[in-house]
Amino acid sequence: MVASSTIAASSAFSPANCSITTTKISGGSDNVTPLGMKPNMRPSFRGLRAKVKAQAPEKHMNDYIYRQNFAIRSFEIGPNRMATIGAMLNHLQATIANHIRYAGLLGDGFGSTPEMSKRNLIWVLAKMQVLVDRYPFWGDVVQIDNWFAGASVKNGIANHWLLRDANTVETLAQANSVWIMMNRKTRKVSKFPEEVRNETAPITMDYCISDDIKLSKLHANTADYVQTGLTAHWSDLDVNHHVNFAKYIGWILENVPTLILNGHEVCDLALEFRRECGEGDVLKSLTTVFENGGNVECQHMLQLENGNEVMRGRTKWRPGYEGKNQIEATFFWTSYKYVG
Question: Which terminal Cβ of the chain has fewer Cβ within 10 Å, N or C?
Fold first, then answer.
């Protein structure tokens, strides 16, 4: 990883005076083994739930899970009337930022803690994996649990999301991510200061979220699909002045064949970020496609024009909600054209 090997950032909101009270979490969670955790390591989820009381100075934080509900809005769905993977990722990063905010750990930065703000440090995303059981439909209310734990990298912290249908408690998806710190001024990856580690310790669970993400490097001369001229615009930047990771998802999906997009849905998404991307940068999107028994796997890479890697990725696809009918219609139309 090079000096600028960062990456993407999280979202956050302005600080607020609030206190955290705790209540029992009930239903659903105890039957799920979180991604990256062995079954015999599973923590008890009948623990603590955050509730906020505005303007109260007292804080209580001790091994709790932050929970937030959101509704799928009309502009967050795709052609299949279900939430897009990009919309779900936006809600995930909003939840992690709200967790930090309501824990009283938000400094004057964008999701940075007070000790991070003193050192001009920001969070940047290094790795992420998302497993989707079912995509929610327009109008569904989704419940997200978020918690922090140790990371597999020395200078990072990991978090886990669990998404469920708020009405039925059905598990929809789960995700892991690893976050590291970057200096806002030098744009270089930073060590994890002990002051920050001590600051985040009260909300960090005492186990390590493992990640075994190993993604392959692609080359333009061997990739199945190459899309050039992807330009990072001012509208793609977040408050940390680089392209937000959710934008990268759109870039790699635009380079997936239309037949896959129409007939399949992403069930497993893995990303590894290697370099940040700023306004005016021009990128290539490389994709290689593999098929296995009706399921499809794609390997992805985003790189700058000079060849420097920005991101590696992998998507696994299964037949979508309307995939069978869509594929049959496509084959029928192709046969009709040639026969007729």
Answer: C
pLDDT at 41: 54
According to DSSP, the β-strands at 204-208 and 141-150 are parallel
Is the CB of residue 148 less than 8 Å from the CB of residue 34? Answer: no
Let me know: does 177 contact 186? Beta carbons within 8 Å: no
CA pair distance 94, 191, nearest whole angstrom: 25
Query: Which residues are CB-neighbours of 51 under 8 A, at least 6 positions away?
Result: 20, 21, 22, 23
Beta-strand relationship, 264-273 and 66-71: unpaired
Average pLDDT over residues 158-177: 94
Give CA 16 to chain center in angstroms: 25
Q: How does pLDDT run across 137-148, given as a tens digit for each residue?
A: 999 999 999 999
Cα 208–212–215 angle (5° rounding)?
Answer: 145
What does the alpha-carbon distance between residue 323 and residue 334 come to, in Å, rounded to a whole number?
16
Catalytic residues: 240, 242, 277
Dihedral in degrees, nearest 10, Cα atoms 187, 105, 199, 161: -80
Strands 157-165 and 18-24: unpaired
pLDDT of 11 > 80? The answer is: no
